[in-house]
Specification:
By secondary structure, this protein is α/β, with parallel strands linked by helices. Helices cover 24% and strands 30% of the residues. Strands 1, 2, 5, 6, 7, 8 and 19 form a 7-stranded mixed beta sheet that branches. A 5-stranded parallel beta sheet has the order 10-17-11-12-13, with helices on one face. A 3-stranded antiparallel beta sheet has the order 14-15-16.
């Protein structure tokens, strides 16, 4: 098999989702002829979210996968070259920047926009994955609304878990916080708020063993939890399960080349998407662990493209 010649572009976008696709739309409209390389999960986390009610511009409920298809088609229509490949290595030490795909394809670029996103950590039990999007979620701000006057549980013990539990009390009639230890990692102020909330019950020293539910229609009916002190397993009736044990940004690729925080999120300059390497930008969940919304990711994709355009014009 003959080696494909190196592909050169002014703007290489690594990753899709709302950040990558929006960056592509802006870069293409600026006549920069971007190349967007997407991996095995084009569209990112939104493709595992079914009902989307909080994306501006749509009065009716839309589907996450549909929204991502629309963004992808729009980016293509304005002139983005889309390539399915997994970038296996990058060299940001000299210019033009270089990236190599698992396909063997080499890419060179005058600027790079990184929008590789993050993945929610899951418990990785089979039943959890089966009911993902049907009562099992990793995003309370996305899905809490669907559990009005219902009973839900949150798994975790850090800030995110406690914040999600408190947030869910706006909708749910009861929230159980399930934690494997006998104390929480969350900051004290948050813990105080949690303890004062009458709707929340904490289940200590326990793990979720199984998610129980129906298949027609598909929905969660309860969970089986195991007490780690007594090994007793009990079944709890509930309508929704939220996993809040953290996210992992997809930044392995950039280790030792770009500045990251201790959790691996890329660090950008204030009010900017520029990383510590001029010409390299980061947008979306790969750098944002605070908001993690489709609309904020799209906003950062726009910023990154505008910053890249300005960088290239000098």
């Amino acid at each position: 098999m003959s080696q494909n010649p190196t592909k050169h572009t002014k703007v290489l976008i690594i990753g899709s989702g709302p950040a990558g696709y929006t960056a592509a739309v802006y870069a293409a409209r600026a006549m920069l002829n971007p190349i967007l390389v997407y991996g095995s999960e084009p569209g990112g986390q939104l493709t595992t979210t079914t009902d989307v009610e909080n994306y501006p511009g749509f009065a009716d409920v839309i589907q996450g996968p549909w929204l991502m298809d629309q963004m992808k088609d729009q980016a293509k229509a304005v002139g983005t070259e889309m390539i399915e490949d997994h970038i296996g290595s990058v060299n940001l030490k000299s210019t033009p920047f270089e990236a190599t795909g698992d396909s063997g394809q080499k890419y060179t670029a005058d600027s790079i926009i990184i929008s590789t996103g993050a993945q929610a950590r899951w418990l990785n039990i089979k039943s959890e994955q089966e009911f993902r999007g049907f009562g099992v979620s990793a995003c309370a701000t996305c899905d809490g609304f669907f559990f009005k006057n219902k009973e839900v549980a949150v798994v975790g013990g850090g800030n995110a878990a406690v914040e999600e539990a408190i947030f869910l009390t706006k909708f749910a009639s009861k929230v159980k916080l399930i934690h494997r230890r006998d104390s929480l990692r969350a900051e004290k102020m948050l813990q105080k708020k949690l303890m004062e909330n009458k709707k929340i019950e904490i289940v200590w020293n326990s793990i979720v063993e199984d998610v129980v539910g129906d298949n027609k229609p598909k929905n969660v009916k309860g969970i089986k939890i195991k007490n780690l002190k007594t090994n007793k397993v009990e079944e709890i009736k509930l309508d929704g399960l939220f996993i809040a044990i953290g996210h992992d940004p997809a930044t392995q690729l950039f280790k030792d080349q770009l500045k990251m925080d201790k959790e691996g999120y890329l660090i950008t300059k204030p009010d900017s998407t520029e990383t510590n390497v001029p010409g390299v930008y980061a947008a979306g969940d790969v750098k944002d662990k605070t908001f993690r919304q489709a609309v904020t990711a799209a906003g950062m994709g726009c910023m990154a493209a505008l910053e890249a355009e300005k960088f290239l014009s000098h």
